[in-house]
Specification:
The protein is of the alpha/beta class. It has one domain: Pyruvate-ferredoxin Oxidoreductase, domain 3 (3-Layer(aba) Sandwich), CATH 3.40.920. Helix content is about 35%, strand content about 20%. The protein contains six helices and six strands. It has a six-stranded mixed beta sheet, sandwiched between helices. α4 crosses α6. The protein is globular, with a radius of gyration of 15 Å.
């Protein structure tokens, strides 16, 4: 089984970190992983995306063909990836920022108020982890390969013990997204 994921938005939203967390979770599960970041020259505010490919078999190319899942954190990212997601694929939208609808009847969409939930937790920049949690909350190709426990372990491993309070907040954001997703399954999902 193989799944391709695109995480896209603006620099400063934790796009690259989210991809590393997802890749790290797959490594925790002893799966094959490819992670490829792409971002503009700006430090913050420029376009940013990364791709993660996870498979229980060897990965022949790190290049994304047609993602099964797109985690979208900005309107320009939605424009860029709206036609690329596979038929039957999934869009997870940070509805705190992205208000445009996905006009494809052949995909499932889960709008998540990720920015709002992250603010409630006390870490505005954790919207990326809220969306990661939502992605693991429903049946999809990634959640068939990776458990929520692996993602939480990946978060803690990447942040490290020196900043355990930051790791705790990111884990809380992930859990809030997971809980939100369980209550609001995407249309035409499962």
């Amino acid at each position: 089984m193989k799944t391709e994921i695109a995480v896209a938005g603006f620099g400063g939203q934790g796009i690259v970190f989210a991809g590393v967390v997802l890749a790290g979770a797959a490594l925790q599960e002893n799966l094959n992983v490819s992670w490829l970041p792409s971002y503009g020259p700006e430090m913050r505010g420029g376009r940013a995306y990364c791709t993660v490919i996870v498979s229980d078999e060897e990965i022949d190319s790190p290049l994304l063909d047609r993602p099964d899942l797109a985690v979208i954190m900005s309107s320009p990212a939605l424009t860029r990836f709206s036609s690329l997601v596979n038929t039957g694929g999934f869009f997870l939208l940070n509805s705190s920022i992205v208000t445009e609808p996905v006009s494809r009847p052949d995909v499932s969409v889960l709008p998540v108020p990720a920015g709002h939930l992250a603010t409630q937790i006390g870490l505005d920049k954790a919207a990326n982890m809220v969306l990661a949690g939502a992605m693991l909350s429903f049946t999809n190709p990634f959640s068939a390969l990776v458990t929520p426990q692996s993602v939480l372990a990946s978060i803690r491993s990447l942040i490290g013990p020196k900043d355990s309070s930051l790791a705790d907040l990111n884990c809380r954001a992930f859990t809030a997204g997971y809980d939100f997703g369980r209550r609001h399954l995407p249309a035409s999902c499962c």
